[in-house]
Amino acid sequence: MSDNSKNAQNRNAAVQNQIGNEALPLTTYWKDVRRRFLKNRIAVVGLLILLTIIVLCVCAPCFTQYDPMMDMDLMNTLVRPFSKEHFLGTDDLGRDIWSRLLYGGRMSAMTGMSVTLLSAALGIVLGLVSGYYGSWVDALLMRFTDIMLSFPFLIIAIAIMAALGSSQGNVILALAIVGWPKFARLTRGQVLAVKNTEYVESARVAGFKNARIIFNHIFPNCIGPLIIQATLSTGSAILSASGLSYLGLGCDAAAPDWGVMLNQGRNYLQQASYLTTIPGIAISLTVLSMNWIGDGLRDAFDPKMRK
Amino acid sequence: MWTYIVRRILQTIPTLLISSLLIFSLLYVTPGDPVELILGTEDANVSEEQRRLVEEQWGLDKPFLVRYIRFIKGVFVGDLGTSYATGEDVFSSVIKRMPNTLKLAGSSMVIALAVSLPLGILAALKHNGILDSVATALATIGVSLPRFWFGLVLIIFFALHLGWLPTMPETTSMADGIVPFMRSIILPASSLALSMAATQTRMVRSSMLDVLNQDYVRYARSKGLKERVVIWGHALKNAMIPVITVIGGEIGGLLGGAVITESIFSWPGVGRLTISSIARRDYPMIQGATLMLCISYMLVNLVVDVLYAWFNPRIRLDVK
Amino acid sequence: MAEKMNEEYLRVENLHTYFHTPEGIVRSVDGVSFHIDAGETLALVGESGCGKTVTSLSLIHLLADSAEVFADKITIGGRTIEKLTGEEARAIRGKQISMIFQEPMTSLNPVYRIEKQLSEVFRLHEPKISKREVYERSIAILKRVGVPKPEERLKVYPHQLSGGLRQRVMIAISLASAPRMLIADEPTTALDVTIQAQIIDLLKGLQKDMNMAILLITHDFGVVSQIADRVAVMYAGKIVESGRLEDIFQDPWHVYTKLLIMSIPGIKVTRGGRLESIAGTVPNPLNWPKGCRFAPRCPEAMPVCFEDEPREYVCGERRVCCHLKRGKADE
Amino acid sequence: MKKKLGILAALLLVLNLFSAAPALAAEKTLRIGTYMTVTTLWPWRTTSDGDGYIIRQIYHTLVEMDENSKFTPGLAASWECADDGVTWTVRLRDDVYWQRGNELFGNEKVKVTAEDVKFSYDYYLDPANGSVRYDALSKTMKEVRVVDEHTIQFVTKDIDVLWEYSMYQNYVIPHRAIEKKWDLGSCPIGSGAYKFQEYVTDTSLTLVKNEDFWREPALDKVVYKFITDKSVSAMALQNKEIDIALAILPTEIENIAGKDYLVVAPAAIGSLRWVGFNCRKPLFSDPEVRRALAMAVDMNGAVQAIFSNKAGAKLAVRGYGCIPYERPGGDLESNKAVTPRYNPKEAMKLLDKLGWKRGAGGVRTKDGKKMSFILQVGNNDANREKLSVIVATQLKAIGVDCTARSAEWATHTSDIAKGNVDMYILGGYSNLDGGKRLMETNAKRFSPNCGYSNAEVDKLIEEAFREMNYDKRCDLLRRAGNIFSSECPHLGAYFEYAQVGHNKRVTDFGYATVYQALCSPVRNVGVAD
Predict the structure, then answer these.
(1) Directed axis angle between helix D382-397 and helix D299-307, to 10°?
(2) Is B278 close to A159, i.e. CB distance below 8 A?
């Protein structure tokens, strides 16, 4: 019964949206988000692609008999794709590209996600704090964010890499350090938007602890845009990582990593283009699906977009 | 307005101080011996005597803070010191390259806008239509292509196969004729513009969609205005507001991304200078370059904010 | 209300507006018929969500693409329109019918000065009009709608005006094209009472001068009582009762109308009724209730009400769809 | 917005209209594409080959060096060493003038005299002037005296068989420039065949013909174009935007060789790239361990894999010693004889014998210490990075936990200089004194000799560098080299032959390395049209 009336309300609201003035009632917010997301064909496709990629990479050993690093056949380099032994051919050191692609996916995914997690964690906390407390805290934190943003990000990343030495961990660290301000900005904006709404006010009046207000009442309202930002930043992190390895500051040279592969193949663009196109496609596909999912989420979170 | 601008410029000063300190200390902990690098690279073979001389000459014997403070003192009188590697005056050699970087960033901004605005708007108007999905797909692919890879592909295609454009800049100044300049900048600029164009297309699309649902658009229609007027007149200006803020954010990425683009297309900009200086541990040069980059970033952002206020009268700069 | 000899301006017969949504067809307007004469005010009354706004927007074709509008007959200014296409609708908008909305804040474009938003209307209708001319007219019309210091007001942005002024400005903009008919959608709801009165007087005055038809959309019988000549009470996509204001006020036939009237603050109703609001909410347009659509909320509902839809009972200018009324009539 | 689009479209149109291949100037211009941007134009501060290539066209050195590391006349017409072995008498050309048409010399024709030479060398000998040659010069040179206007005498502190090398390294600068505090850094003035015209920062540098040169230079203009990305410069060469591209990548060779209008010329002298052990680390102090690890890596295969190309160009050869085979003391056969062969099984046996038994996770351990280290490589050379990967992988295969890690260049060099590396890849030191510095004990510095030390080697080298007789010297160096190779302070090495691609319109180019003048007694590079 109650469910019924809920649906009633929210369909009703749907109608209102058709006319375009009222927003959805919060009651079935998450349900709606899920429903709308699943309705969005492109987003679902993106999700499927991503899942496939993840499965392939996680269970890499099941899909290839070659070791991405150890199976190096110097007599047998630059084998073209779709040969008998090597599905996607071999690279300039005779290593099986398919297996490097699979294992490389692990690396890149690791990089992308850890970067996002780190920078998101840092950014969100700072954003919440500065948005919620305002005044000098806000001023201080935002000034600092400005500083971080005003750095040409690659240059600071390079400096960090040069200082710490090349390794996947440091790539992640460097990218996270340059990545968090975006999250901070975003969160802060969201917080300011919901800070003075009735329910936060009432929560304050009810005498809840600040921490609790922030995390129970404010944070949930920032989650939508943040998730989108996260999907996007995961993709761009993978790209930036490959950019770093172009400048010779990537992770270990031997390690299978899409960015590294792309970079090592770039001198073969003319005679063995597949060395770059294959990881290139892999990266693009991943980022693409991430973005599609992100869009889907955005539309799902913000019904107006969907009209 | 003017008071606001002045205040903003003043505000940048502490920001600059801290950022320069950041980069300075970062490099300070970075291994690498300037003296060796001053006196040559792989084959260097430096005598103690000469080392001492060089260290005195460049003040490398002084402790960290002293060096930093000396640097800052210099900054305020417009003296960024002289390069370890070349003995050039840092300020002048950065200033020589800065216009190039700005030209590059600027033209890629123009390209990005020229592509993203129409595309995004059309996508929004034909929402869920074929054009929409095409535009969105293009945009997403655009975001997901690695810059240096795209750059090289551009060169191979336009310079090598088609032979339309040079693989390296013929000139970097309009003075040598507009056509050569355009021929030189179009490839680097486009490769730099790619990702930005993509993100902006998405941005324009969604904010346009948002605006099209607003009451004032409906009201404008109810006045009987032509659809063209409603879209390009009433909707667009509103839709631009969030786009502009995004552009503001992009600029950092532009100047940063210029590093790669500049080294692929041998574009003589600050980014390239910074990279090579880092490799040489040419501290004064790195300092100067990053500092100038930060400054230009902030100035451009200031311009963006002023623009923002123009687009959005609800923001009043003076009371901000 | 002085009686005038008036020719009919707008006639709508059996108007339907359906929305095709993922959930199914939403029948927001489900067979509505009414007419307005020039110089007359028809009030379309009802709770929000029962299709008033949709009805009005349907007339000038301002709905989402997912909306499907069809009617047996729509006549505007003597001209009958078979199918309301986008282009036709645009021609009608402004010139013949213009509209003012509930929320002047969001309806005025925040990024343009009042001057632009006003002048573009003049230009639209007389493309080769001179700057000077536009300016003078703008001043004039702002004066007319009672905006003090119009010269200054032209130069400001909407957010710099008070609510009342904004509403006046919006009225000015809507009337700048000298329309034959004005749709006023909750024109006073966003304003406080004193301003409300002023705006209503203003509308009345303007109506007199321009001999303009007004379709007033509101949920508030208070407002209705101050301005309307005739009233059409709308519920769940249908008009349940219509007639001259006085009659309906004296003796509302439909229970819904009664309740609406009773809910006006400060109206002394006979039969010891007190100020009360109507229980429950408007049903869901995806599947209107069987029988009388008001039955589920109707305090006086009878079994039959839940079974079959009441036929329309007509008596002179009055029309009503209620089983109760029929019962009375049959006696 | 539509307008913007229109403009853009129009623009592209214009571009296409105007985009014929760049027209060749009527004057004879040689366009050289180099990846090495100018670090400095001060003749006594430069260490980079890139600067050298430019500066050597503007200034004279007393002598030039040809591809067989023989010295040929430059500013010096002839020179001989007295029997004492320390007095060098040099006769200068009498028809060399300082470049004119600048504010320093205006239009007056000023001869280059012994005085200028003396001044230059004295100038470099004063540490305050910060010459990068100071160290080397001050070690060997005692004094320089003017005999007459065109004759000059150098006295070295001790017999120095490489004195000619110093005469080849130090540029002769105009006395007047220093007096007048002329800024040679931004406007160099010398006596070479080409005059400095302009330098557009990081874009191009232009030289023009020096009419006063004793022989008519074949070119009116030399333009250096700075192209950072090597594969891009190869494309520029194919696109006929440049006539010469320095350092063609192995991956580009086929594209270049494929074009009928292009030639690839290999360097005459290989340049050493080696994988060095840090012999100061206990792990690598034992030659046997080094031998074992050396045996585990298929250097020939690696060189093959990295440098093989369909064009069949000789890009690199396996290095068994550390002295290029073209240099005195370099000798493939005898070096090869003493260098351990690739033989993983033997390598494993040897390691087992030495007590490095396979432990947990297949990693060899001895007395609870894992055999695990990092192979560090600089990030500026794709070939070296490939080598690092190969080495690391093949070592892993025999249970040695070796990780290849590329480090930012300056970090890499300083780590090596300080000896903060286990194993590293470095290159260079292929000059005449390269072998000496690579092999002889050097307590002061770790690099370039990997902390290797062997009294016998030191003795042989010292003798060699006091031996005036060329063949005897070669023999001494060879013996030193063989001991060195047999003790494997280098896991392996190869000599890389820099490839210069050039358009066929370039004449008399032969192989003008960055170390040689374009117009000299032996060569006069020009362009056909």
Answers:
(1) 140
(2) yes
B224 → closest Cβ in C93, C106, C108: C93
Interatomic CA distance for residues D330 and D315, integer angstroms:
18
Euclidean distance between CA atoms B132 and A179, whole angstroms: 30
Which chain B residues in 229-288 lie under 8 Å from chain D, judged by CB atoms? 232, 236, 262-266, 268, 272-273, 276, 278-281
What pLDDT does A304 receive? 46
Q: Which amino acid is at C267?
A: I
Among B30, B37, B159, the residue with its CB nearest the CB of D235 is B159
Q: Distance (Å) from the C-alpha of residue A29 to the closest C-alpha of chain C?
A: 17
Taking CA atoms, D460 is separated from C212, D320, D338, D479, D481, in Å, by 116, 19, 17, 8, 9
Closest chain A CA to residue B11: A143
- B42, B60, B232, B276, best to mutate vs chain D, most D CBs in 10 Å: B42
Buried b or exposed e, range D221-244, using 16+ CB within 10 angstroms: bbbbbbbbbbbbbbbbbbbbbbbb
| Distance between A2 CA and the closest CA of chain B, angstroms | 31
Q: Are residues B225 and C124, on separate chains, in Cβ contact within 8 Å?
A: yes
Residue C331: predicted pLDDT: 42
**ipTM here:** 0.75
Q: In 3D, which of D361, D239, C200 has the Cα closest to residue B170? A: D239
Rounded to the nearest angstrom, the minimum Cα separation between A239 and chain B is: 6
Contacts of D441 (CB under 8 A, 6+ apart): D449, D452, D453, D454, D455, D457, D458
The CA distance from C62 to the nearest CA of chain B, in Å, is 7
Q: For residue range B120-132, list pLDDT tens digits in order.
A: 888 888 877 788 8
Predicted pLDDT of residue C6? 64
pLDDT digits (tens, 9 = 90+) for B187-222: 999 998 888 888 888 888 888 888 888 888 888 888
D11, D128, D200 member nearest B53 (Cβ):
D128
Contact B160 D22 (CB under 8 A): no
Where do we find the tokens 């390009």? B232
Is residue D1 scored above 70 in pLDDT? no
DSSP letters of D152-188?
EEEEESS--TTHHHHHHHSEE--HHHHHTT--TTTS-
CA–CA dist A226, A298 (Å, integer): 10
**β-strands D519-520, D506-507: how paired?**
unpaired
* Interface with chain A: mutation pick from B20, B22, B128, B149, highest number of A CBs within 10 Å: B149
List the single residue in D21, D136, D429 with the smallest CB-CB distance to B163. D21
Q: CA D523, D524, D525, D529 torsion: positive or negative?
A: negative
C104 cis-preceded (ω within 30 degrees of 0): no
Q: Which of residues 23-52 of C touch A (CB under 8 A)?
A: 23, 26, 28, 49
Q: Are B167 and D241 an interchain contact pair (Cβ–Cβ within 8 Å)?
A: yes
Q: Of the candidates A164, A165, A126, which has an alpha carbon nearest to the alpha carbon of residue A142? A: A126
Looking at the complex, report in whole angstroms how far the Cα of residue D171 sits from the nearest Cα belonging to chain A. 35
DSSP chain B: -HHHHHHHHHHHHHHHHHHHHHHHHHHHHS---HHHHHT-STT----HHHHHHHHHHHTTTS-HHHHHHHHHHHHHTT---B-TTT--BHHHHHHHHHHHHHHHHHHHHHHHHHHHHHHHHHHHHTTTSHHHHHHHHHHHHHHTS-HHHHHHHHIIIIIIIS--S-SS-S-SSGGG-HHHHHHHHHHHHHHHHHHHHHHHHHHHHHHHHHHHTSHHHHHHHHTT--HHIIIIIIIHHHHHHHHHHHHHHHHHHHHHHHHHHHHHTT--SHHHHHHHHHHHT-HHHHHHHHHHHHHHHHHHHHHHHHHHHHH-TT--GGG-
